[in-house]
Amino acid sequence: MSIETQTPTLTKKDFQTDQEVRWCPGCGDYAILSAVQQVFPELGVPREKFVVVSGIGCSSRFPYYMNTFGFHSIHGRAPAVATGLKLARPELEVWIATGDGDAMSIGGNHLIHTLRRNVGVKILMFNNRIYGLTKGQYSPTSELGKKTKSTPVGSVDYPFNPLSLAIGAGATFVARSVDIFQQHLRDTLRRAAEHKGTAYVEIYQNCNIFNDKAFTYMTEKDTKDEGVLYLEHGKPLVFGKDKDKGIRMQGTEMEVIRFEDGFGPDDCLVWNESLDNPATAFLAAQLLPPHFPTALGVFRNVVMPSYEERVVEQIHQETGRLGVGKLEDLLKAGDTWTVPEQSLVS
Amino acid sequence: MSIETQTPTLTKKDFQTDQEVRWCPGCGDYAILSAVQQVFPELGVPREKFVVVSGIGCSSRFPYYMNTFGFHSIHGRAPAVATGLKLARPELEVWIATGDGDAMSIGGNHLIHTLRRNVGVKILMFNNRIYGLTKGQYSPTSELGKKTKSTPVGSVDYPFNPLSLAIGAGATFVARSVDIFQQHLRDTLRRAAEHKGTAYVEIYQNCNIFNDKAFTYMTEKDTKDEGVLYLEHGKPLVFGKDKDKGIRMQGTEMEVIRFEDGFGPDDCLVWNESLDNPATAFLAAQLLPPHFPTALGVFRNVVMPSYEERVVEQIHQETGRLGVGKLEDLLKAGDTWTVPEQSLVS
Amino acid sequence: MSTTVAENERREIVTEKLDEVVIRFAGDSGDGMQMTGTQFTNTSALLGNDLSTLPDFPAEIRAPAGTLPGVSAFQVRIADYDIHTPGDAPDVLVAMNPAALKKELRDLKPNGIVIVNTDEFNQRNFARAGYASNPLEDGSLSRFRVFQVALTTMTRRTLEGSGLDNKSMDRCKNMFALGMCYWLFSRPMENTIKYLEKQFARKPQIAEANVKVLKAGWNFCDITELFHHRYEIPAATLEPGLYRNITGNTALALGLIAASRRSGLSLFLGAYPITPASDVLHELSQYKNYGVTTFQAEDEIAAVCSAVGASFGGALGVTVSSGPGIALKAEAMGLAVMTELPLIVCDIQRGGPSTGLPTKTEQADLLQVMFGRNSESPIPVLAPSSPKDCFDIALEATRIATRYMTPVVVLSDGYIANGSEPWKLPQVEDLPDLRVEFHTEAEGFRPYARNPETLSRPWAIPGTPGLEHRIGGLEKENVTGNVSYDPVNHENMVHLRAEKVARIAEDIPNVQVFGDLEGELLVLGWGSTAGAVTGAVNSARQQGLSVSRAHLRHLNPFPKNLGEVLARYDKVLVPEMNLGQLALLLRARYLKDILSLTKVKGLPFTRQEILQKIQQILEPKHVH
Amino acid sequence: MSTTVAENERREIVTEKLDEVVIRFAGDSGDGMQMTGTQFTNTSALLGNDLSTLPDFPAEIRAPAGTLPGVSAFQVRIADYDIHTPGDAPDVLVAMNPAALKKELRDLKPNGIVIVNTDEFNQRNFARAGYASNPLEDGSLSRFRVFQVALTTMTRRTLEGSGLDNKSMDRCKNMFALGMCYWLFSRPMENTIKYLEKQFARKPQIAEANVKVLKAGWNFCDITELFHHRYEIPAATLEPGLYRNITGNTALALGLIAASRRSGLSLFLGAYPITPASDVLHELSQYKNYGVTTFQAEDEIAAVCSAVGASFGGALGVTVSSGPGIALKAEAMGLAVMTELPLIVCDIQRGGPSTGLPTKTEQADLLQVMFGRNSESPIPVLAPSSPKDCFDIALEATRIATRYMTPVVVLSDGYIANGSEPWKLPQVEDLPDLRVEFHTEAEGFRPYARNPETLSRPWAIPGTPGLEHRIGGLEKENVTGNVSYDPVNHENMVHLRAEKVARIAEDIPNVQVFGDLEGELLVLGWGSTAGAVTGAVNSARQQGLSVSRAHLRHLNPFPKNLGEVLARYDKVLVPEMNLGQLALLLRARYLKDILSLTKVKGLPFTRQEILQKIQQILEPKHVH
Ligand SMILES: Cc1ncc(C[n+]2csc(CCOP(=O)(O)OP(=O)(O)O)c2C)c(N)n1
Ligand SMILES: Cc1ncc(C[n+]2csc(CCOP(=O)(O)OP(=O)(O)O)c2C)c(N)n1
Ligand code: SF4
Ligand code: SF4
Ligand SMILES: [Mg+2]
Ligand SMILES: [Mg+2]
Q1: N or C: which end of chain B has fewer CB within 10 A?
Q2: Kind and range of the H or E run holding C113
């Protein structure tokens, strides 16, 4: 009994399964798996309280490799399955592993509605900008003109900005990290774990088979310092190898300032992830190449009651108001009449 | 022949059908119908080139009352049907009539992908913040706590901000108007008609049966001047009965300034609907009660090639590069061999 | 002096006893006919009549006033004996306007009573209804007993000085009609008065006005010479007990709550509104204090997926929709089949295909729910036989879903869903014990180990230490539940899933025959045809025809004895509101030539239609 | 002197003529087995052999190296006569590692040839493959002729000094194996050399390396004593003409383009990727200069809806998917039924239910496409019988869809889709004339007026002056196409839609029997079982058994003469890769007791399996 209730201290090993990991050698998914397996034991949650839900895709194989409860559902529907689960069992830690196709293409509607409702689930969106499992078609995050199996002369679709979409849908927690930035990724996952509502984390993930080197400009030693801007709450937006550039507001937009032009950190915007108005987070979501470095970190983090909290609260209120319903009363409700033993003709 | 090709001058009557209009007396849909029937004849497009596509809902009955080609499809799918039609027949004028449930609930995914791709269709989203046809359940745009048939003690869903979502999805034209503001509505429809990509127009529409007076604060004589802010390209954001208030940027957000505090129009933000960066439009999309008046007009209007343009262009390029394909060549492609009349054993 | 006149008159008024009467209230969508009919129904219920109702309203919220598409009707049949249908043809038609008369008259019995609101009989309305001339004058009603009443005028006169505007006054005119009917059929007004006072508690002025008009309608009959007859329909000799009048959708909702209580599982409904299923969502959303969670999802796919997620979490996962929505749930239902989780999918069928006729009834989703999923994806299917049976079906569906770890489909339809009948309240303790035990033993736990009897796998819910496991839509290795592409395992699993469902036949009642144990003809009904079949076969037998009947509540699997029962009759007739879907399943399974009687009009069968078919089969000579 | 040795040796090498041989190449997903097999196939095709192939790859992109789930195999059968299947059991197995040996050996013929890459036979790989001991040493292969070759070592040696790193070198080792097989079966290398040079045009170094290794493999056999036999498979006597080897998915894509050209309609494909259907999208996306528009939609619902929209616009609207995706298209397919628009829905079936076995074949979607929509929603269904038949089916589907204004389903499957066979190129002018005429006459235009013969309505596309009209999912009034809730009209329309599809039976060829026009047993195949059925029945007849065969390409409606044909045989056997879905339809329709031979293993039937069943039925005594 007590053995079950007290939380034993867990380790990464506790979260590994006996199933062979079936990703291609070199796939970025390995790094993400490792980061999650390191963070989960730190959360002080008993293992049996974790559930990892996914859709379909290479990324969605994730649950098989996590020794928790897991549900590898159908393509694009993980947020819907997870919402039902979280409403039925609010005390569970429900995490979603999904891909850019699973979450942003077929699953787009469930994603935005989950974000709108602020359901208390954590969504890890593995963005490799390609359909991996089906062997390399372009996805809604693939860049314009991308040549793939289904677009031999280049795609004509403008891609989504996944964070703009999430913020536009009303997300309360939005962040971005990168598969191989293990430290940053783990920190981001911890931040997501702390959030009470929906946490949406875009993770740049390299698919070395069908879309290799999609993110090298920000992962390669020589380019990454110029290519990456870290959003840190309360700190000025400074970046560059020698921390010699920054971001400031110019009218309604953000712009890059170079300290060589006489600017300094004080001229930079001090990052605030917790503003009610989503506009600031949206501004930061536009910080992308070619005109800007890629912003990483937490874009938005505001505290609002989660969907399940409100649902449970309402059930409590009603129960308080009306008392725990009795089945007898329910059946008897409304106009009733009795047919006596010997029914008489009126 | 020539009679068919030259465009006869059309009138509102030309766009009315013999079908009885089956909306409740007093429904805002009548006003929208009337506005559209007035604007279409002005567009210099032959009537047979118009197609009105819809999903399911009271609003989606729209095509039956427009004497054009029309397709009353299935719930939520109008954007998908319209995309196929527009790709197959780019020369057609394809308009979509949809509701807050049809477009934002079941149809959310098709909506955001249509906006992302910038398909050259016009989307009129009748937002009455309720499911009308199914007799009054709350919708994704209903305010928190709304009591409806399916939420007897109030809804616990945070609503979408339809324009934030559209801008987050990458919309190139986004506007808002109101059913009974006929002049403004017609102007807005004309602006939408001019746009080459996807034009997304949210129209506040009163459902006098299931959600009456949802927008009175901005339609009633006494409150409307304070409750409404008109976005006009190149003009400062000024509002109020006596034009004595305005909007300016304060850091990363917008704020209301009162001229009685010594401010004037010059202190107000000059509206620019055509910025590449969607952040400004997103800022304006946050201009809603209680802290702000409701912004009406064009929030975003940027010129980008439409989806069908790019598709057609690619087909032309390939045809130019390879010549018009010959069926014979296609069949013969790849490794072929001949079996002679009398096939010999090697 | 009018009273004295009345007194004299009254002596002449004859009161007749009838064993039954069918009344149809018809008017504009705005005329409140549904409410009027419901009031007449409830009052009659309280008098102890057996009864059955059939509402019929347009797909549009409110089509233009005075037009045919705008007509809303409510038919109620009350009787002093046990009845099974709302009646084939009305004895009385209340027509609030020409359109209502035009649309509903055709069904009226010869010499039937027509009460019309003459105030609405003007050229404009004739045009709207498509009448060339005034039907009240052109003799087209000669076959009926027509009573012309200026309902609107009388109503306004009644409310003179009430301070209400005309619009509000006119809204009361249905109460005038109701008052007249109460007088005509000797019903007390108390119940409706109570209702009005409760309904308009916040608007006492409106309540008062309605009550006033109701009484005015009654008095109008009482003091005028209009009717020379009054009627009484004595109470039916129903089984003793506590009764209430209930619609199918309400019974289904209550049944689900009862199932949740009896199983100890909390009830989770994931639903997206759709006619005629929405009322189940509306109903259940009112019972939060019964621990019911209702989730209005963004679409049907999310609705069913959320229910699957809830079931995985150990709740009773339910989703409800109608044909078009069920089509969207197909893929996720397949997921529930593969993951072997309990799930209840309620399909309140309506007219199709596609959007079809949203407010009309049909039974044409049987094959969809049987086969509308990719690959071999067997699911048990149940169908309630009447409004009140929806309560019991919910319990049976829960029993099968949890005992066999499988999704279950409940096939109701618009006729049952909106129709009502008296329901004898069950004793809670008499309801089946559906207690469920989750798996808790970590030792040797195997997610796909099978109960040898039911072949079901353990229900091991998140939060249980040591039971961490993964499920999903890929083929599973039996016992371990690991992903497996092994050919032999796959074939084995396909057969196991099929066998699991087939075995349920061992666990459900045999089909019962009413009539002769063998003979010339068996009429086999399913779902909402039960009433009409019963009525028709009873009449046929009274006429001495050798015909028996049986009814199927379990459509997959079929009851064990079905094949052998069918074999005992020369001919088998299956009436269904489709093109012969059950017939197809029976023919394939039993290789017996099944005669189909099909009706796809958006309306239920009448007793007469089935009776005629029976006669045609058994004594063709008599039928010309 | 090795040459002279070789010369001496060579005298001892016997060259045998074979009428056929079946080779299976098996290795890690990364070993390029699909490409190796394809090369062997194409080369043999150019030699004039008849052939048939069966690729078999894992669901994962790349499962861990050396494991069973990671094994990718490609089987090819080449013959000097007309064959119909890729062969039941291989004569030769090339196993690039222990896992491949373990997984694929069971099918190998007794005394068959096994070529293994010894470099991969080490403890680590034994463990991964689940071998307790080294199979090359523990005698478990004694029943076979095993040839142990250090492929990796030889390859690296061959490429010494090429400047390639080991990884790149090892990637060439499949060419060594191919070279060996070319020598063993007397095939020329030119074709593959050409291919390699084209394939790696931008990486000449890689091209050169592969060619080098290919030749090395050839020479290795030529100079070593390894084999004492060589084999020749003479060209088959195929019908004279120009041929190419083609897979089902490619044939389907080409057929759709041909249909577009022959009908004068531009081709629009709306699709969402899914195994094994994606290749049709990939293929068609390459033919923009044929005026083909391919739209990769956000999901399957958008895919089918976009195709419906395109059809409304006057294009040939097509969508392609597999089981789970087809389930999602159900509602929109119903819309096409109601709006009576042409639409082609291709279902490339795979193992299920749910996500199931994505890369395995199955035929279990027949009932889904027949009935998987709400209400009565009839759709014609066609199934290709082989890879090349996919071309003709596309034309036939287009003919029916446009002539009858109806959606049409094409039921292919993974076996046909990825399998290949030689295809005699048709003359374009011999292809059916499918020209379509849009309605243009405004005078008296009625959107739902019907062609008396076909019952189809006019195709009136936007942009045509005077034809402005509205269609949609609500029930239509016949002729006018206005929304109608009229009961009689609804029933009439339900029957009209059913009758329209039923009448197609008048317009399709009768089912043909091969064998005796009557007799003890008829084997009826559909879809991809055609080859195995033909092979099995031919053998059975050679054994003097009284068995005939027939094949169904049209599954809805059935050919006019089907019932009468079935009646002519004592017994009818239907082999299908499901639990008896066609059998169910036949039993229901013809009340004939159909014998089912079912296989649901994700693998096609073997000739042998069907032959045994035939024997069992016709001479049970002989079968123990
Ligand atoms: C209903 C359905 N449609 C399509 C598919 C095929 N499918 C499986 S995964 C996938 C896309 C995966 O892309 P993504 O979500 O980015 O995952 P990744 O493999 O890149 O990690 C598709 C189209 C499916 N399994 N089910
Ligand atoms: C697949 C499907 N699901 C549900 C419905 C039922 N339904 C019809 S309209 C509608 C919502 C309409 O709301 P909205 O789009 O806001 O239109 P409104 O009536 O308010 O104008 C719903 C749920 C349907 N017809 N089809
Ligand atoms: S295909 Fe790409 S995403 Fe999928 S496992 Fe391989 S590397 Fe990873
Ligand atoms: S229900 Fe509301 S939205 Fe629908 S027609 Fe009536 S008023 Fe208009
Ligand atoms: Mg991806
Ligand atoms: Mg609405």
Answers
A1: N
A2: strand C113-117
Instruction: Report whether C481 contacts C471 (CB < 8 A).
Output: yes
d(CA C272, CA C111): 46
pLDDT of B103: 98
| Ligand 3: lining residues by beta carbon, under 6 Å | A 23-24, 27, 29, 58, 128, 132, 207-210; D 61-62
Q: How confident is the model at residue A9 (pLDDT cuts 50, 70, 90)?
A: confident
User: Residues in chain D with pLDDT < 50?
Assistant: 1-11, 623-624
Cβ-Cβ contacts under 8 Å between A and B: the total is: 131
* pLDDT band with cut points at 50, 70 and 90 for residue B22: confident
The CA dihedral of B215, B221, B227, B232, to the nearest 10 degrees, is 100
Is the peptide bond prior to B293 cis by the omega test (within 30 degrees of 0)?
no
Residue D140 Ramachandran class (φ > 0 left, ψ -120 to 50 alpha, else beta): alpha
- Give the distance, in angstroms, between the CA of residue D477 and the centroid of all CA atoms in the same chain: 42
Q: Which helix (H) or strand (E) holds C589?
A: helix C581-590
Residue C601 contacts D where some CB pair is shorter than 8 Å: yes
For atom 5 of ligand 1, the residue with the nearest CA is D274
User: Contacts by B181-189 with C-beta closer than 8 Å and gap 24+?
Assistant: B181/B219, B181/B296, B182/B31, B182/B34, B182/B35, B184/B230, B184/B296, B184/B297, B185/B31, B185/B32, B185/B35, B186/B35, B186/B38, B186/B39, B188/B297, B188/B298, B189/B35, B189/B36, B189/B39, B189/B124
3-class DSSP state for residue D188? coil
- Of the listed ranges B34-48, C107-121, C354-368, D588-602, the one predicted with least confidence: C107-121
- Please give the average per-residue pLDDT across B273-284, as a whole number: 98
What is the percent of chain C with per-residue pLDDT over 70, rounded to a whole number? Answer: 97
Q: What is the residue type of C195?
A: Y
Tell me the pLDDT band of B294, cut-offs 50, 70 and 90: very high
Closest of D35, D70, D19, D65 to residue D173, by C-alpha: D35
Partners of residue B325 in chain D, C-beta under 8 Å: 257, 287, 289-291
Letter for the amino acid at D255?
Answer: G
CB C169 within 8 A of CB C159: yes
Residue B164 has what pLDDT?
98
DSSP helix/strand/coil, D14: strand
pLDDT over 70 (residue C270) = yes
Size of interface C-D (CB pairs under 8 A): 234
If you measure from the C-alpha of residue D375 to the centroid of ligand 2, how many angstroms do you get, rounded to a whole number? 19
Which of A158-172, C224-238, D24-38 is predicted least confidently?
C224-238
State whether the beta carbon of C61 lies less than 6 angstroms from ligand 4: yes
Answer yes or no: are the C-beta atoms of B3 and B153 closer than 8 Å.
Answer: no
C1 has pLDDT over 80: no
Angle among Cα B141, B146, B152 to the nearest 5 degrees reads: 130
At residue A342 the predicted structure's pLDDT band, cuts being 50, 70 and 90, is: low
- Round the average pLDDT of chain B to a whole number and report it: 94
The mean pLDDT of C503-529, rounded to a whole number, is: 97
On whether the CB atoms of residues D536 and D618 are closer than 8 A, the answer is no
| B5: closest chain D residue by CA | D465
- In DSSP terms, D93 is beta-bridged to D24, D114
Share of chain B above pLDDT 70, in %: 96
Checking if the pLDDT of A343 tops 70, the result is no
CA distance D167 to chain A (A): 13
Q: Which residues of B touch A160 (CB under 8 A)?
A: 112, 116, 169-170
Please name which of C73, C374, C71, C48 lies closest in space to residue C235, comparing C-alpha atoms: C48
Alpha carbons A306 and A118: distance in angstroms, whole number: 5
Enter the pTM of the model: 0.94
Residue B26 C-alpha, separation from nearest chain A C-alpha, in angstroms: 32
